[in-house]
Amino acid sequence: MKKWLALAATAVLGASLLISGCGSSTNNASSSGSKEVLKVAANPVPHAEILEQVKPILAKEGVDLQIVEFTDYIQPNMALSSHEVDANFFANVPYQNNYNKDHGTNFVSFAPVHIEPLAIYSQKIKDLKDLPNGAKVAIPSDPTNSARALLLLQSAGLVTLKDPTGLTNTPFDITSNPKNIQITELEAAQIPRSIQDLDAAVINANYALPAGLNPTKDGLFVEKADSPYANLLSVNPGDENKPAIQKLAKALQSPEVKKFIEEHYKGAIIPAF
């Protein structure tokens, strides 16, 4: 019996030492040069592509940037609100202001990176003057980009709006429509897939590029570069001053990123800094 107890005690002691050793090894690994993880939600194009350019910059600063991709405009904000990510990079100030108002969030948006010019595209005409009466024209359905698209249609001379410079116009605010175009609101990601069924479509650049459409080459009418719709970082209130977030903001506005945007997108995406 004594011999059995001695063996049992030895086994327990050995297991205790083994567990202690494993825990010590883990702690050493976590304390020896590990990087701070920073998760950022983004649309694949161009946001995730731009974030890939800052990964090595942040790695030198001790930050492990992890990109979480979403293909729509809703999930990046949901992920930020639920703290599944530390920041998101996909939207502009008017969009985030509208989202905050509608969803009771208080996202802080800062560090403008680039502008994605909105443009009018068509597979049926080569010039807007050839747009037929009663033409079917699609615009994004979310309030911010819908209003933005209406301003573009106004600039192109297709409609007149009640508030010529307003950022909250809806199709109901059209006061003049000489060609009686039929405006259809579709989810932004769906518009490139539906263009063959339309006479014209207003498409965001981040959805136009993956569909093989370049605003500077294929757009019949393109948003001007002084657009207020620069894409930028958004975080939960109070997080904008965190060191890792500040490092990300600085990296996104670095000369390396500006050069990448100019050389890679060749005018389809424009630096905003």
Automatic annotation (TrEMBL):
It holds the Pfam family Lipoprotein_9. It comes from the Bacteria. It is a lipid-anchor. InterPro entries: Lipoprotein_NlpA. It is found in: Membrane. The keyword Secreted does not apply. Residues 1-21 form the signal peptide. Keywords: Lipoprotein, Membrane, Palmitate, Signal. Belongs to the nlpA lipoprotein family. This is Lipoprotein. It comes from Veillonella fallax. The lineage of its organism: Bacteria, Bacillati, Bacillota, Negativicutes, Veillonellales.
